[in-house]
TrEMBL record, chain A:
Any GO molecular function: ligand-gated monoatomic ion channel activity
Lineage: Bacteria, Bacillati, Actinomycetota, Actinomycetes, Kitasatosporales
Source species, domain of life: Bacteria
Entry-linked InterPro entries: Bact_solute-bind_prot3 (IPR051455), Iontro_rcpt_C (IPR001320), Solute-binding_3/MltF_N (IPR001638)
SUPFAM superfamilies: Periplasmic binding protein-like II
Solute-binding protein family 3/N-terminal domain span: 30-254
Membrane spanning stretches: none
Keyword hit for Metal-binding: no
Family: Belongs to the bacterial solute-binding protein 3 family.
Any Gene Ontology CC annotation: extracellular region
Coiled coil: none
Biological process, per Gene Ontology: amino acid transport
SMART domains: PBPb, PBPe
Name this protein carries in UniProt: Glutamate ABC transporter substrate-binding protein
Automatic annotation (TrEMBL), chain B:
Protein name as annotated: ABC transporter permease subunit
Keywords from the UniProt entry: Amino-acid transport, Cell membrane, Membrane, Transmembrane, Transmembrane helix, Transport
Superkingdom, natural source: Bacteria
Record membrane topology: Multi-pass membrane protein
Species whose genome carries this gene: Streptomyces radicis
CDD domains, sorted: TM_PBP2
Record bears the keyword Cell membrane: yes
Primary location: membrane
One of the protein's GO biological processes: amino acid transport
PANTHER family: AMINO-ACID ABC TRANSPORTER PERMEASE PROTEIN YHDX-RELATED, MEMBRANE COMPONENT OF AMINO ACID ABC TRANSPORTER
Occurrences of domain ABC transmembrane type-1 (ranges): 16-213
TM regions (residue ranges): 20-40, 61-80, 92-110, 131-152, 191-217
GO cellular component, one term: ATP-binding cassette (ABC) transporter complex
Length: 268, 224
């Protein structure tokens, strides 16, 4: 008897789990948006649990244009390696997470936008001089493993430089601060976020070298019906001046001059 | 299906070769340091026993990722311990990773070996003592040779776990299999086939190890 009770309990628990997963993510009323939780300036969860950053505000604006209220938006973390899967499985409805448009990714997902053009750059200690592009070969660089920036360094502009890949950008900052690393390299939009953080203010500065072009797009599932609407929303955001305001708000403190808003449909 | 597998662009075999090198070097290091630790834990000197016990408990219960990241962030990039390599080079990360794996894996080797020492009948050590052998002689001539033969199977377990643990070295940027996997997923945007490919690669490494050492364990065991 006791055994039957236990198995009945287990069965109902299993049923509950199944239904819970079935309705998890992307319900009818509301929109689930994938963002970064750990990139200052772009998408960061602060101490109160709120989300702040340029990508977050862009996501809010687009969702608003698509007809969703503020409280109907659910933010999900979209780590770089999982972005295509999240869209493919329908766990998120769109991704606004410093998602560079590349040919390989366009085979898997649709991109609206781009809404921003970033460039690969170096973050240096304020006491070091900005190197010439040739002199980067002599530096000890740091980046995040598996990122496009790390690959660019090794392939294109500094094949002889020492490159230390870490899991997160914060780990690079330890070595940079202690002088054991010379520079941190990735998109300038991300670097600006770190330079502007309160605990780092005045310690690090952007070199201002435009080493590559990264077109940030809004990731949507393949053949999404929302593609046109999202493109229109981005165009409207640029037109009504919101885009400019957001750029000023999130990148202004780092003295970072962003490029003008890109044309919809522009590709690298 | 497998069009992501561009061997000119991705050094698949090089990455797995690094995994093998990490495993072999860390394995040898752990065997040596683990044996010393086991000797300390059974030694008659209280301070050595205490050191061995504390060491094993601290390192065995610390997450491996933490040990590896601490080797890099703390020892190298903060305290400037370069292990005769330059900052930001593969050789520095590689050496730090081997150091971390030896610190961690040796605790498991030590405990496996200690259980092996317990399989040697007490009478043997007593007889050796009665013949006038010193502690070191009793350990190296009588007890350890028999203990090793008893623990080939548990040590094979440790080695297989170590092979898979080497993926943690990706956290500090050692160019081994797991790091290449992350690179390929980021660049090619095909999570599932790439993950399956690498899982298969690890099976190719660990399955023969397990089968071979299982056979050795049967041959080597002391029949009592």
């Amino acid at each position: 008897m006791r055994l039957r009770k236990a198995s009945a309990l287990a069965a109902s628990a299993a049923a509950l789990v199944l239904t819970a997963t079935a309705c998890g993510g992307g319900g009818d009323d509301g929109i689930t948006i994938g963002i970064k939780f750990d990139q200052p300036g772009l998408g960061l969860q602060n101490e109160e649990g709120d989300f702040v950053g340029f990508d977050v505000d862009v996501a809010r604006y687009i969702a608003g244009e698509l007809g969703y209220e503020e409280d109907e938006i659910t933010f999900e973390e979209a780590p770089s390696p999982e972005r295509e899967q999240l869209l493919d499985r329908g766990d998120v409805d769109m991704i606004v997470a410093s998602y560079s448009i590349t040919e390989e990714r366009e085979e898997q997902v649709d991109f609206a936008g781009p809404y921003f053009v970033a460039h690969q750059d170096l973050l240096l200690r304020t006491d070091t001089e900005v190197p010439t592009p040739e002199a980067i070969n002599d530096l000890t660089l740091c980046s995040v493993s598996g990122s496009t920036s790390a690959e660019n360094v090794q392939r294109d502009f500094a094949p002889d430089a020492n490159l230390q890949p870490f899991n997160t950008y914060s780990e690079c900052l330890t070595g940079l601060e202690n002088g054991t690393l010379d520079a941190l390299t990735t998109d300038d939009s991300i670097l600006a976020g770190y330079a502007a953080q309160e605990q780092h203010q005045g310690k690090f500065a952007l070199a201002g070298l435009e080493l590559s072009d990264e077109y940030y797009g809004v990731g949507l599932p393949k053949d999404s019906e929302d593609l046109e609407d999202v493109n229109d929303a981005i165009a409207q955001m640029v037109e009504d001046g919101t885009w400019e305001e957001l750029v000023q708000e999130h990148f202004g403190p780092a003295n970072y001059e962003a490029d003008a808003a890109p044309e919809i449909g522009a590709r690298p | 299906m497998f069009d992501f597998l561009d061997l000119d662009r991705y050094d698949l075999f090089g990455a797995f070769w690094t995994t093998v090198q990490l495993t072999v070097l860390s394995g040898i290091g752990s065997l040596i340091w683990g044996t010393i630790l086991a000797a300390m834990r059974v030694s008659p000197v209280p301070i050595m026993r205490a050191f061995g016990t504390v060491y094993v408990h601290v390192f065995r219960n610390t997450p491996l990722t933490l040990i590896i990241v601490a080797c890099s962030q703390l020892l190298a990039y903060t305290l400037g311990m370069t292990m005769w390599a330059d900052f930001g080079t593969q050789s520095l990360s590689f050496r730090l990773a081997v150091l971390g794996f030896v610190l961690y894996t040796s605790t498991f080797v030590c405990e496996a070996l200690r259980s092996g020492i317990n399989t040697v009948p007490v009478g043997q050590a007593e007889a050796a003592r009665a013949l006038g052998l010193s502690f070191t002689q009793v350990l190296t001539l009588i007890v350890l040779p028999q203990a090793f033969r008893a623990v080939v199977a548990p040590l094979a377990n440790v080695l297989i776990a170590l092979t898979k643990n080497t993926t943690v070295a990706a956290a500090i940027g050692v160019a081994e299999a797991a790091l290449l996997m992350r690179d390929m997923i980021e660049q090619e945007a095909q999570l599932v086939p790439i993950a399956i490919l690498f899982a298969f690669g690890f099976i190719v490494l660990t399955l023969p190890t397990g089968l071979f050492l299982g056979w050795v364990a049967k041959r080597a065991a002391v029949k009592r």
